[in-house]
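Lab notes, practical 5.
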Amino acid sequence: MQPSPAMQALIEQIYHTFRRYRVPQKFVVCCEYCLSQQEQKALRSTSLRAIPYSLINAWNSSPGPDPPK
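Output from the prediction step:
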């Protein structure tokens, strides 16, 4: 299913807004089991428009580090 022209325009606006942000050299995750080095490398080397859902989901689903006590 293709997005409507209005939705596509919003998506393009978001890409335009976030294009100035650079990919972090280190992702803040709890450990390499949550987001492997291979997945981190793939995130850093893939253009934003080409990142597959599965890779975004892996990053988004990984918990962050334990908060300081």
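Observations recorded by the TA: Residues 28-69 form one domain. Helices lie at 5-18, 37-45, 53-61.
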